[in-house]
Amino acid sequence: MNLQRKIQQLLKPMLQPMIAVLIGLVTGALAIALVGESIMNTYKVMWDGAFGNFYFLTATLARATPIILVGLGLALAFRAGVFNMGAEGQMVLGAVCAALAALYVPGAGIVKLLSAFLAGFIAGGLWSLLAGWMEVKYKVQLLISTLLLNYVAVLFAGYLVAEPFQDKSGSAALAQTPMLDQAVWLPKLFAGMSVHMGFVIAVIGAVILYVVLQFTSSGYEVRMLGKNPFFAEYGGINKHKVLLFSMFFSGGISGLAGTVEVLGSQYRYVEGALTVPGYAWTGLMAALLANSNPLGTAVAAILLAALQTGAMGMERNTEVPLEIASVIQGVLILFVTAKFTLSWWKVKKKAGDVNGAV
C-alpha cells in the first residue's frame, strides 16, 4: 500500500502536463476543423512527425534537451518562490562562454570539454546571481531585473561573436565563433541521429534535482522558502542565502542548456540559434505546467518539443499551417494561468474563512 502511494506520488506530477496537452489538442482540433482538414489525419501526421520513426523520435529528444535543462533551472527558482525570468540570457551567456572556453583553454580535449561545462555553468549562474544580489541589496524586483537582463546578455553575446571572436575564415561573415575541435563535441547517442549526450545529462539532472529537493536539507530549505518565506525565516532559514543559492544554480542550469547545444548540436556559438527557437520560453512553460516538479518538467518538455517537431511535419504534409501549434501552446498558457488563478482564489478564500469573511 505504501509502495502504491509512492508510485502515485511519483506519477502525479507527470499526469498534469499530459492533461494540459490533451486540452490543448482538443482546442487544436477545433482550429483544424475550421481550416477544413481532417482532424484525425492531421494529428496522425503530427504524431508521425514527432514519433513516427526512430529518426523523428531522436529529433524530438534532441529538441527537448535544452528545454528540459532550462525548465529544471526555472523549476528550482520557482520552488524557492523567486521568479527567474532571465533563462534566455543565462542560457545564451552560458553558451557563448562555453564556446570560448572550448576554443581558447589550452590542453587536451577532455580539459577543454570540462572547462566548457564549467564556464557555461558559472556564466549562467553569475548572471542570475547578479539579479538575486540586486533583489537582496536594493530590493530590485527579480521579475523585472531578470527579464531586462535578457536583452543585455543576448546583445553582449551578439557583440562578442560579431566583433572580437567572429569566425572570419568563411566568406559569409556570419556572427558566429570558429568551429570547435571535434575533441570537445558531445558524442551522438546513435550514429546518424541528432540526439546527443546532452539529453542523458538533462535526464540525469532531472533525477538529481528531484532527489535534492525532496530528500536533502538544502532542498527542504528551498521548498520552505517557496511555500512560506515568513515561516521559513521564523524557523531559522537564512532567506537571503537560500535565495542567492537558488538563483545561482537556477542560472547555472540554464547556462548548461546553452552549453550542451553548443557542444552537441551546433559545435560553435551562432547568434540567434538559441533565441529564435524559443527554448527558454518553452522551458518556462514546461516548468509551470509541471508545477515545478523536476520529473514532471522533463516530461512536459518532451511533450512540448514533440508538439513543435510534429507541427513541422504537419506543415510539410498537409494544408494546415504551422500556427496550429502556436494555438495549442496558447491554450497551454491559458491552462497555466487558470491553474494559478484558481490556486490564488483558494488561498484568498481560505484566508477569508479564517478571518470570518464570506
Number of distinct beta strands: 0
Written as H for each helix and E for each strand, in order along the chain, the element string is HHHHHHHHHHHHH
Form type: globular
Q: What is the assembly state of the chains in this entry?
A: single chain
Q: What kind of sheet is the major sheet?
A: none
- CA radius of gyration: 21 Å
Class by alpha and beta content:
mainly alpha
Number of distinct helices: 13
* Mean pLDDT over all positions: 86
Tell me the distance between the termini: 40 Å
Strand content: under 5%
Helix content: over 70%
As residue ranges, the low-confidence spans are: none
How are the SSEs placed, and which strands pair?
Elements: H1 2-35, H2 39-51, H3 54-79, H4 87-104, H5 109-138, H6 142-162, H7 197-215, H8 217-227, H9 229-234, H10 239-266, H11 279-289, H12 294-317, H13 323-354
Helix pairs in contact: 1-12, 1-13, 2-3, 2-12, 3-7, 3-10, 3-11, 3-12, 4-5, 4-6, 4-10, 5-6, 5-10, 7-8, 7-12, 8-10, 11-12, 12-13
